[in-house]
Write a structure and sequence with these properties.
By secondary structure, the chain is α+β, with helices and mostly antiparallel strands. The protein contains seven helices and 23 strands. The protein has a six-stranded antiparallel barrel with strand order 3-4-5-10-7-6.
Amino acid sequence: MLALTLAMAAAPILTQPVRAERVRDLGGFQGVRSNQLTGYGIIVGLPGTGDDNLEYLTQAMRGVSGRLGVQLPPGVAPGLKNAAAVMITADLPAFAKPGQRIDVTVSTIGKAKSLRGGALVLAPLYGADGQIYAMAQGNLAVGGLGITAKDGSQLTVNVPTVGRIAEGASVERAVATGFDSAAILRWNLFDADFLNAARVRDAINRRFPGTASVEDGVTLALRLPEGSDARASAMAAIETIEVSPADAAAKVIVNSRTGTVVINSAVRLSPAAISHGKLVVRIDEKPRVSQPGPFSNGQTAVVPSSQISASEEGSHVALFKPGASLSSLVNALNKLGVSPSDLVAILEALKQAGALKAEMVVI
C-alpha cells in the first residue's frame, strides 16, 4: 500500500492546457469601427422588369433628368418599366480616405421583378449625421434570376431583386476617429465581463506598466504615447497580447421557433430525479355497413365503430448526483429518448426546482 501511494505521488499530474486568446479577439478600440451608409437611387436599363409608373420613382426620375438638363413637361407620367427605385447600403471602413472605393448593396423598394442587367445612376450615400460620405454608381451583379411567361407562370432562382456593385462607391469624406490625438483611448470588450476586463488590464500592464485601467465591465482606459506612429505601434502590440479568458457563465439557450437547445459546459445540476413518460392515446375508426333484413323495407346504413386504447411509453427515471456535468445530463436525456420540445420542458422544470444552475435564455 505504501509503495502504491508513493508511486501515485511521484506520477506526473496531467492538466488541461490553458486556453489563450488575443486581445484583438476579445474586443476592439472605441471609434475604430465601420459606419453604415444608406442612400436612395434609381436603376436604369432593365429589360421591362422595373417599377413601371410608381409615383416616387417618377418623381426621382424627374430629379435625375433635371440634373442632366432634361425637363419633363408637367402632367406627363412616363412609363418606366426599364427603371426601378432602390435603397443603397454600404459600410464605410475605419480610416477610409477620400478616393478609396467601397462595395455597395442595392435592393428594390417597389414592385420591380428583377435588377439583372441594370445600372445605378449616380447617388449620394449618407451617414447617421445626414452628411454625404460617398457617391455610388455602376453596373449591378445580380445572383438571382426571375422569368415570367406569357401564360403567367413564373420561375425564380435565388433573389433577383438584390444586387451588388463591387467597389461601386467612392469615398468623399473621412470619419475622424481621434486615435492619434485623444489623451485616453478606450478599448471595449465584445461581451461585458468584469473578470475578463481585469485579466486584459493585467496582461496589458505586464507589457506596458501603468497603461491600462478598468472603467467598467466593458471598457478599459489606455494611456498611450502621443503621435500617430508611436500610438499605432502600441495599439498593434496590445492587440497581439494573449489573455486567458474567464469561463463563460452557465447558460441554456432555447430557440422557441426551431426547437434548438444549446447547453454550455459550465452548466451544473444539483441532486435531482427526472421521470419522463409519454401517454399515447390511439383512436381507430372502423365504420361498419349495416344491411337491412330481407323484405323489411329498411335502408343500408353506416354504423360508426370506434376503438380507443391508451399506453404510456418511456416511463424511466434518471437520477443526477451533486455537481452533475453537461455530459451526464446529455447522456441521461438521450437514454430517456426526449425530443427537443420535451427537453425544454425538462430544463424548465429543473430550473423551477432549483436543480439547474444556469441562466435560461429563450430566443
